[in-house]
Amino acid sequence: MEVTAQAIQELRTLTGAGIMDIKKALVESNGNTEAAIKLLREQGKLKALKKQERETKEGIIEAYIHANSQVGSMIELNCETDFVARNKEFQELAHNIVLQVAALNPQYIAPEDVPQEVIEREKMIYQKQLEKEKKPANVLEKIIIGKLEKFFSEVCLVKQKFFKDEKITIEELITSKIGALGENIQVRRIVRMSIK
């Protein structure tokens, strides 16, 4: 199957994947863009999982103050080398994440950062809500797990939908950049301040 340069460029813009990976994904998916994106994301996740064990000692601090000077946010985004820290794509990622923090006010970076007492409190609330339901315990447990996942998607940065593209989460956005830049990337700290 013939793969056009335009199709490659479009997918590169959407995924940040390498040209050869994009070409291979387009061939495997018979030119189906959606299927190619899915393939690339799966490959990116595999690459990212291998890289997530690596230490991240370099990076940047990115700050944002909203035009009305009433909301501000700051993040520390880490990578493995100063070369990547100076990369435009890495800096753009940091800027998008700091905007996400300002816009959606996550309380934590990831679910593992949520204190156990907060999780237990949420579970108690869900159990109270479900007391009147006449469902088996295993079904209620699944409902509670689903409600916890929804809670994490609201309060944890990496589980939130990316405000510029609701089809992906911040975690998936970072994973795609790990694949594109070839280094582990981690959000180390976030801060958001608001007058109101």
Automatic annotation (TrEMBL):
Every Translation elongation factor EFTs/EF1B dimerisation domain range: 92-176
SUPFAM superfamilies registered for this protein in UniProt: Elongation factor Ts (EF-Ts), dimerisation domain, UBA-like
Gene3D superfamilies listed in its UniProt record: 1.10.286.20, DNA helicase RuvA subunit, C-terminal domain, Elongation factor Ts, dimerisation domain
Keywords: Cytoplasm, Elongation factor, Protein biosynthesis
Pfam families linked to this entry: EF_TS
Molecular-function GO terms, alphabetical: translation elongation factor activity
Domain of life the protein comes from: Bacteria
PROSITE patterns: EF_TS_1, EF_TS_2
GO cellular component: cytoplasm
Region Involved in Mg(2+) ion dislocation from EF-Tu, residue ranges: 81-84
Subcellular compartments: Cytoplasm
Main location: cytoplasm
InterPro entries: EF-Ts_dimer_sf (IPR036402), Transl_elong_EFTs/EF1B (IPR001816), Transl_elong_EFTs/EF1B_dimer (IPR014039), Transl_elong_Ts_CS (IPR018101), UBA-like_sf (IPR009060)
Family (UniProt): Belongs to the EF-Ts family.
Role played: Associates with the EF-Tu.GDP complex and induces the exchange of GDP to GTP. It remains bound to the aminoacyl-tRNA.EF-Tu.GTP complex up to the GTP hydrolysis stage on the ribosome.
HAMAP family: EF_Ts
Name the UniProt record assigns to this protein: Elongation factor Ts
